[in-house]
Each structure stands twice: as C-alpha cells, then as structure tokens.
Amino acid sequence: MGGPEIDRLIRLLAKLPGMGPRSARRAALKMLQQPDSRMLPLATALADAARSVRSCSLCGNLDSRDPCSICTNPQRDRTLICVVEGVGDLWALERAAVHRGLYHVLGGTLSALSGIGPEDLNVTPLLARIREGGVTEVILALGATVDGATTAHWLTDRLRPLGVTVTRVAQGVPIGGALDVLDDGTLAAALRARRPS
Amino acid sequence: MGGPEIDRLIRLLAKLPGMGPRSARRAALKMLQQPDSRMLPLATALADAARSVRSCSLCGNLDSRDPCSICTNPQRDRTLICVVEGVGDLWALERAAVHRGLYHVLGGTLSALSGIGPEDLNVTPLLARIREGGVTEVILALGATVDGATTAHWLTDRLRPLGVTVTRVAQGVPIGGALDVLDDGTLAAALRARRPS
Fold this sequence. Notes:
The structure is a homodimer of 197-residue chains.
Chain A: H1 4-14, H2 21-33, H3 35-52, E1 54-55, E2 62-63, E3 77-84, H4 87-96, E4 101-105, H5 124-131, E5 137-141, H6 146-159, E6 165-168, H7 184-192
Parallel strand pairs in A: 3-4, 3-5, 5-6
Antiparallel strand pairs in A: 1-2
Helix pairs in contact in A: 1-2, 2-3
C-alpha cells in the first residue's frame, strides 16, 4: 500500500492487546498524518521505557528504579506485604489506593494444567524477605480461581511457620453488583462469608 | 506506579484510536514484559515510519517513496483516476484490489458546516493532472453523505469541461446486507439505480 514501513507498523500495532488489523490501520493512519506530534513521542516513550524499566529485585514490580519506588518509599508500611499474581494486579491495587504496605509479585499461580510448579514462581525471595524480619502480615491477593486458591493454600502452609499472620482478600458480591447476574460460586462464597449487619 | 516512563507510555498509548486507559495499561504491561521482542521493534517501526513516510506529491497517498508506489507502478492504468476523500479510503480500495488505475486523495470533502471550501482540498493538483492529458475517466469514490454528494457534484462541474468522463461509485444494498436493516436513503438509492436482472 505505502511501502514496507507502513505495513510493518500496522503489523506490530495489530499485535497489541485490544487491537486488531482494522484498529491498527486506523491508528497508523492517524499517526502518519501527525508524525511529529503523535508518532515520534510514542516511539521515544517506547524506547525509553524498554531501556529503563526493569523488574524490582525485591518485589518483582516493574519500575525505572531498582528497588522500585514502592519498596523505597519511606511512607509505606514495611510490616505488611501484599502478594499478587502479576504486575497488573499491583497496578490495580495502587490505582484504588487501598494498600499502604509493600507488595510481592509471584509472576503467576501454581497450575497443574499448565505445568507451573513452585520453582517457576517468585516464592523463595518472598520467604527470604519474611525471614529477614519486620513483616507481621502477608495478605494473599490472588485471583478467585482454582489455581489462585491452590496457590493461596500452598503459600499459607509455607508462610505460617515463619511466624507471620497470613490473610486472604475476601470473596463476595462486587460493589455495585446485582445478585441475579452473579455465578453460583460467588453467591456461595458471599453467603459463607456473611457478617453481622 | 512505576515511574514517569511507564505513565507517559500509557498516556500516549491511550490516545491511539480504539484504545482507552484500560487497554493502554494492558498493552503497556504486555510490552514491558517483553521489551526486546515487542517494545523496541514497535519503537523502531514508529520512528522509521515517521522519518520516511510522506504525502505523495502527485496523488496525496502516504508512502515512503515520493511519487508513491502506486503513481510509479507501470502496471497501473494511467488513464483512470479514482478520487477519494482520505488515505483510509485508498487503503480500503487497495485491500479489495478493485481499482487498477491511479488515485487522487482530496483530503476531505466540501462542508459548509465545518467551513471547508474548495481551497482547503487537494483540487488544483487534480485539475492539473487532468490538463496534462492522458486521463480519460475520473471515478468519484466519495462517501454517500450530504458533503460527499455536494463535493461530487461540485467536482463533476469542474472536471467535465476538461473533456474527461466523470463517474461515481454506485449506491445500493451492501453485499451480504439484509434489506430490513437498511436506512430509507439506501433503499431509495438502490431502487432508483435498479438494473435489468
């Protein structure tokens, strides 16, 4: 259509999550019409991020600093570690601003089906962080899936002997959620975990 | 969350057509996890395209060559020029591989409402191309909107005196389209333009 540069750009844009060939063409066209104000800034941002962002060697968060800006923030509660599956979960909790402690990114969950065992997860560094002392509670904020529950169970067995309180995020009716659209598992969990009103 | 580089990347990705803050975060996260295989190639493709792609000085197509690869292709029928509103329309026709002639990109349509007059469109170069001789037919492939029809009418008045055949793409029922979901205007146009079966 317009040379190999445009074809390659559209092919790479189409691989982004949420994009397809059609939206990639629209995005490419829009950017090609404003190369200086739209394309070059994005090219620079991508190159900068690729060069500077790395995994935090303490918690597994992605940041341009190592240790990351959460691990080095003196305002955060260092007695509290929230264990999440991935960086996307950490981002969600940070956007909600609901956790004032530190994090630990597992990098997945145990999964017999996908052949993911404990050695594939970022577990040993978590145990080391707790053995170093200072941590009193570990919050397991894993997904409410079979693999998430298995992982939470397995982690609890390993963490409790280290003398820390281990908790899990509650399961129940999402805020704003109607009961009649919820699945049976969520309804059962919400009933089981009922509290005095 | 993870430093200014990640924030800036997400902000720029969210501006792409079809993307929002949520999909931009997903895309950024996915790329940050594979910087070398996903991020740097896209950064390079964007920078390459921004540097090399420009408007064809003959037809207005976007290409890394000027004149563009369509204008310089000896296989194309140089007696036939298809006039389109934008490069996206040209891409659509090229994907469908239904036009074997050349193109001319107007860069918009006349619009009293948006204050777009003939001087804002790429019209003078079109008239010059035809005055140079060799063109026998100009196909107006403009949108079936009020502005598209106005522009087609206005262009026809200017092109006909130059001794070329001026045609318009047909309006009617889209292939695969059911009649009962079509608007009245399309139905009327399809009936008006009926042909012997």
